[in-house]
Write a structure and sequence with these properties.
Alpha-Beta Plaits, Diguanylate_Cyclase, diguanylate cyclase, Nucleotide_cyclase, three-stranded mixed sheet, alpha/beta, two-stranded antiparallel ribbon
Length: 147
Amino acid sequence: MGRHRHRPLQGHHDRFGHEAGDVVIRDLAELVQARVRKRDRLYRMGGEEFLLLLDGVEAGALHQVLDTLRETIHDELDVPGGRITVSIGGALPLPGEDWRPWLSRADAAMYDAKQGGRNQVRVFGSNTPVQRPDPRADRRREAVDSP
């Protein structure tokens, strides 16, 4: 394993060009779709934002499911310039609720994750952020894995 920089998906287009950025977006979508259930749905909302509908995920599991996905993207999506980090926001629909306020809450949670330091998950209504990975752990893994 080589050394990796960690860079938000958002800046990849600017640094490496739109063609390289489009490849990253395609690879990200393929990785996510490979890790979720067939009944879950992934939509590109525009630019570098995606909407993932997770059918039947309970409130207690949503945070963990999303953080596992964040870790998978970080660990497995290796692109020119280093690893990609993502900020993920989640929300649960309320009974009888239209999709617009639900999406608005998920969007607010995503922006909270970005403002909280990026590369993390926030679920609307939860005050407990997921612990960010220790960057020293990557260096320790690289030292072990290096020849």
